[in-house]
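_Backbone structure tokens_
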Amino acid sequence: MAYTRRHRSISTFLYALPFNSQSRAVNALLAGWDVTGILLLQSGSFETATFSNRDPSGTGANVRGFTAAQRPDQTGDGNISSPTPDVYWDVNAFVLPANNIGRFGNGEVGTLIGPGTRVFSMTVGKNFQMPANQRLRFEIAMANLFDLENFDVPNRTITSSAFGRITNTQTVDQAGPRTVQFSLRYSF
């Protein structure tokens, strides 16, 4: 469920800048530029509160090897109306069940909603024609052009002092800090 999003929108564009001059020198510099871009908007992922190193069911689930993470008891929604990086989820909505009580925790899968993502990336490039079917391409690629801060998923382990707190920013989907890359490609 961590990779499932309720809403995901991706928009792209390509635009060849219109420029035409009577001067060959001016056209060589200013004509032939193109701009491409991509806008990603998505809601937060569905997350699940967990804990480990405890076995409320008494079945040895924490040592069987398939997973040591288990779900706690859930007493409330867990999501809050105005989350901040320091308090993203309601930490009081989850309780650690006691050992050997004969059941697993009742916490549901995917009830917590993580932070969304907003990214706009753009590339500006120009092709330079050369003799004999040779070509030179210059590009400036800018990921997360407006340097929007996209928070990573909060800590999901209820036994951690950082439970419900965001300590990093996203790095997937080019959602990290703004990066600029210059490239020059020669094709022959």
